[in-house]
Amino acid sequence: xxxxxxxxxxxxxxxxxxxxxxxxxxxxxxxxxxxxxxxxxxxxxxxxxxxxxxxxxxxxxxxxxxxxxxxxxxxxxxxxxxxxxxxxxxxxxxxxxxxxxxxxxxxxxxxxxxxxxxxxxxxxxxxxxxxxxxxxxxxxxxxxxxxxxxxxxxxxxxxxxxxxxxxxxxxxxxxxxxxxxxxxxxxxxxxxxxxxxxxxxxxxxxxxxxxxxxxxxxxxxxxxxxxxxxxxxxx
Length: 235
What we know:
The longest helix has 19 residues, at 66-84. This protein is 64% helix and 2% strand. 27% of the residues are buried. It starts with a helix and ends in a 6-residue tail after the last helix. By secondary structure, the chain is mainly α. A hairpin with a 2-residue loop joins strand 1 and strand 2.
């Protein structure tokens, strides 16, 4: 039923969409969709460039229309953003907005196919590079996890303030966030017990270490904890 409705929705491109469905909708695990060997379409764009990636992974037989190729690229990029968004919510929210803007321009025909591919490749490479460390304070150089915390702290703290609190931005707010990010990073490296993920007692130790750093703000502590849980560097 789902496939039937899907084809009805995209009736103008039915032949192309049938090819995509036959290629990507299988009984294999989701992680294998859109991938051959060890590379996904998104990874191959980074490795070889978008034209070779399309030829090798998306349109091997050269039968897809430009619309179908564009939809295939969008679906693969969106899937990657959704998969990785918890590792750096603010960064991936920005990428998602860029993708939405590109989709709108393509569907409104305000960009050519060539421009669409160039912009899509640029977005994928930006995603692969991660947060631009050049825009980070020098104190965070080489500290990826601390950079992610620093990048997301403004949103976390703003979202956990009481609705009634009217607060003007402080001139030294960025410095406060930097000091807090460094303190959190230090606490995770010096105080977090080994194997803390999934162990209730050890997770409470992590929460207790974060709580005073975050001004004893329980909501902010829990939000930062969820962010930290998705940082592979905090073993």
